[in-house]
What we know:
- The protein is of the alpha/beta class.
- The chain contains 16 helices and eight strands.
- The chain has a six-stranded mixed sheet, with helices on both faces. Strands 6-7 form a two-stranded antiparallel ribbon.
Amino acid sequence: xxxxxxxxxxxSSLVLLLYGVQKVSYSIWWKPKWLEKRLRRQGITGxxxxxxxxxxxxxxxxxxxxxxxxxxxxHDIVSRVDPFTLSNxxxxxxxxxxxxxxxPRLIVMDPEMMKEILSNKLGHFQKPYxxxxxxxLTRGLTTLEGEEWAKHxxxxxxxxxxxxxxxxxxxxFEEGRNIFEFQKEHITLTLEAMQTLYxxxxxxxxxxxxxxxxxxxxxxxxMFRDLIQRKKDAIRTGQAEGDNLLGLLxxxxxxxxxxxxxxxxxxxxxxxDEVIEECKQFYLVGHETTSSWLTWTxxxxxxxxxxxxxxxxxxxxxxxxxxxxxxxxxxLKIIIKVSMILYEVLRLYPPVIxxxxxxxxxxxxxxxxxxxxxxLTLPTLLIHHDPELWGDDAEKFKPERFAEGISxxxxxxxxxxxxxxxxxxxxx
Length: 428
């Protein structure tokens, strides 16, 4: 019997080896080629699949070439910020194919198709695979899917419809600055790791950088835990109100904060760990998007002093020579010229350059059948600079295009979506 078992071992090993080879071959060759064939049969053109690497080499070549050239002092930034997507679109059209490694990606710039994708009525689209490294930064709202996302969105959403909301978490300036610094370092280390070949499990190897990321994750979690406990104690003793974001998150489970037809169950609560992750997210995302928006606004106004003067006149009408308070700032949002300027800056310099989706089930968009396993890229930056949607002056700073509101600023309502669109549009 022992003799027969010894003879069976090589056969079992060979079977396992053949199974592994077959599985790898399917993942890196047969499946990508099958998906490519299905898309091309429908008239979609684009780059051809290259084993494992896809279009990574061309992407790196174009971005390196673009960044090696000096930047002109104008608003024509697409060729510098996203040269690969621009090149692909110019060669193959507004619905075109390229490869992110072994995954096919469709660039979609057709407004009608974009509406169907973003509305996601059948629920067949979700965010593409997220690297586990991202989860070390935050597991907040934007990383969630399905019922978990719906629960968090339902609880958090009322906070952004209250006029009295202070967009803060109640931390001191020094504490907030420390959190920002830790998160900034954590982001840098995470992005650095994501630019290298991802090896499953390598993040657990105790390298110097892995240990530093682990420390930063624990440190920020601890700081938010302390901040939340102090806020809870202050609200309970009446020393603080619950009218900022953290206060509203902490009150989410109270019966009087829920709609009349919703009972106070675990489905309507956030655990302490979930509150911590949402705090991380709003610190991280809120700070980055707001600071970027304001920075570009200052740069653009410096380039266009005539609009700087118009904005100053409106601000003086509202605030006079006093330092702006929260009431004055809320009034500034509705005055025409300031709003026009802010919208135009968001058009030219959106906080994210694209919206990404993944087809988890086969679905039809317009006349195109999208197989499961295909990624979709809606290139926000290219759409915001598209002359067919914004006119021949699309690369120019013209706030007056928003004089009659967002819906009439372009040839299509969906031409402007700096914070996404549809049910998953940015909550803030």
